[in-house]
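Chapter review: from sequence to fold.
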Amino acid sequence: MIFVKEHIHNNRKLLAICDGNLIGKIFEEGDKILNVSKNFYHGEPMFEKDILKLIEDNILLNIVGDESIKFALKNELIDKKGIIRIKNIPHAMLL
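The token string follows.
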């Protein structure tokens, strides 16, 4: 299940999109840390069509997890070149 949480800062919207099974976990590899905090990522579970409606109004995306990244690639929101992996967990941002 994909979870989505909307953040608003200085009139800019950011969507945190994350696989539900990763929320609350921290992944470390070398000097890289991916903190999938509940505070930032735990929003509402959503269907893909509903996420796409939200994205229309959002410029910034923060995407974590296999399912979420597959969704973003399928809908051409990100490019494979922009994906990093920390402990084999994919992460991408769209600014």
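Two observations follow directly from the output. The first strand starts at residue 2 and ends at 9. The beta strands are 2-9, 12-19, 25-29, 32-36, 44-46, 60-64, 84-86, 89-94.
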